[in-house]
Amino acid sequence: MLGLMQERPLLISSLLEHAACYHADREIVSRTCEGRLRRDTYRTLAHRSRQLAHALIRMGVKPGDRVASLAWNTHRHLELYYAVSGIGAVLHTVNPRLFPEQLTYIINHAGAKVVMYDITFDKLVADLRPTLDHVKTYVALTDADHMAGMPEGSLCYEDLLAAEPTEFDWPVFDENTASGLCYTSGTTGNPKGVLYSHRSTLLHAMMLCQVDGLALSSRDATLLCVPLFHVNAWGVPYGSPLCGAKLVLPGPNLDGKSLYELAKTEGCTFSLGVPTVWMGFLDHIEKTGADAKSELMMQRLIVGGSAAPKSLMRKLDDLGIHAFQAWGMSETGPVATVAHALPKHDALSEEARFDLRCMGGRPMFGVELRLIDDEGRVLAHDGDTPGELQVRGPWVTSGYFGGEGTGPDAEGWFSTGDIATVDPDGFVRITDRAKDVIKSGGEWISSIDLEDAAMRHPQVAEAAVVGVPHPRWQERPLLVVVPKGDAPDKAALRDFLTDYVARWWLPDDVVFVDELPHTATGKLQKMVLRKAYAEYVLPDVATGNRGAAE
Ligand code: AMP
Question: Number of structural domains, the chain?
Answer without folding.
Answer: 1
